[in-house]
Amino acid sequence: AQTVSRDEGGELTVGGTPVTRLAEEFGTPAYILDETDFRARAQAWRTAFGDDADVFYAGKAFLSRAVVRWLHEEGLNLDVCSGGELATALSAGMPADRIAFHGNNKSVTEIRRAIEAGVGRIVLDSFQEIVRVAHIAQSLGRRQRVQIRVTVGVEAHTHEFIATAHEDQKFGIPLAGGQAAEAVRRALQLDGLELIGIHSHIGSQIFDMSGFEVAAHRVVGLLKEIRDEHGVELPEIDLGGGLGIAYTSDDDPREPHEIAKALTEIVTRECEGARLATPRISVEPGRAIVGPTAFTVYEVGTIKPLDGLRTYVSVDGGMSDNIRTALYDAEYSVSLVSRSSDAEPMLCRVVGKHCESGDIVVRDAFLPGDLAPGDLIAVPATGAYCRSMASNYNHVLRPPVVAVADGEARVIVRRETEDDLLRLDVG
Ligand code: LLP
């Protein structure tokens, strides 16, 4: 569905608009997001699961009011994990009952606001939170629909910082030692809560479905235990997000319909084995929807060849608009997009403008040997966890997000200005 291609001159065009025109109009660096592609991916996830499941887009990957409206129009739900994300969702008109509220340390104020707004579910992450949410709901005269997030003890094959189902980390309540069963016991006793299901999120940027298989097996095991002990069959199971996307040509992601089929089959099979009615499934893809839909366009600045090593190509952004390379050793590709070139490729490292040697955008990349200051280069697959994790390090201004659809480009998140920076500085 992506509408990015090259014209005859070798220049990249998005939805028919040349990238140099976008750069002239909106400046660089900029995230260029293909709205048509975003909607198609959202829709593909929704239709893959059909009416028997719910797709919650994980807002942490990238959230703005335009995105909320697209999701609403495409029939998706939304997962938020902070008061700020909740406020964005509500201000753009997402119906509260289609919002799930996550987080390992939600504040009392956030919880109260979520319950007052009428969010569809709060995902409880600890024993303390079970009691806290129950009390707040009760004090507001509400019965809040909740799920309990459990850690199933799976080692997802991904970077340590984004794996979340092994036991030694901060999220969820371990299944081990009967802790999750105890959490369910407590939640069922509290009047302020309506326990609707169990939640598991095993990590992020995952290709291998076996982790989901183990997770589903263990969660269904818990559902069975709950049925046997309390005579209650919880109606829902959430398998989280985490489906990987292609950052480089080495990655081979699965299509939403394959994932939906695999997950549905696993849950159905496990439930049949346990003689349980199959619960309603929900999933929370973030990266898989928005990640591939955007690229970052940078202008090349200083080029520094280091003899026998590589050429350092500096761009006008860096770790402030993409922290993923520095933080997770993430791999990206890069290409020259403002023109074509037949020059011999040279080994480059694309680096930013920050005062730090770890400020690397693309660790190893080949770019044409005639690369020159003023050329535009683009890093694909920056839709997820780039703008949403952007910072003002070195007081660098965060880039805009420009959405392209039907040949039209419009800013959906504007570029930060020095006035924006100074507005917060009230000393
Ligand atoms: N659901 C829950 C409960 C999550 O914690 C996450 C991601 C998702 C869904 C969405 O996962 P996705 O489908 O986007 O992989 N900053 C890291 C990723 C952190 C993910 C945190 N949780 C990165 O840039 O790779």
From TrEMBL:
Presence of the UniProt keyword ATP-binding in the record: no
GO MF annotation list: diaminopimelate decarboxylase activity
Domain Orn/DAP/Arg decarboxylase 2 C-terminal: 295-383
Cited Gene3D superfamilies: Alanine racemase (3.20.20.10), Lyase, Ornithine Decarboxylase, Chain A, domain 1 (2.40.37.10)
Positions of pyridoxal 5'-phosphate binding: G242, E284, P285, G286, R287, Y385
Record protein name field: Diaminopimelate decarboxylase
Chain ranges of the Orn/DAP/Arg decarboxylase 2 N-terminal domain: 37-291
Cited InterPro entries: Ala_racemase/Decarboxylase_C (IPR009006), DAP_deCOOHase_LysA (IPR002986), De-COase2_C (IPR022643), De-COase2_CS (IPR022657), De-COase2_N (IPR022644), De-COase2_pyr-phos_BS (IPR022653), Orn/DAP/Arg_de-COase (IPR000183), PLP-binding_barrel (IPR029066)
UniProt signal peptide: none
Modification type N6-(pyridoxal phosphate)lysine: residues: K60
Gene behind the chain: lysA
Keywords noted in UniProt: Amino-acid biosynthesis, Decarboxylase, Lyase, Lysine biosynthesis, Pyridoxal phosphate
Assembly and binders: Homodimer.
Family: Belongs to the Orn/Lys/Arg decarboxylase class-II family. LysA subfamily.
EC number from the UniProt entry: 4.1.1.20
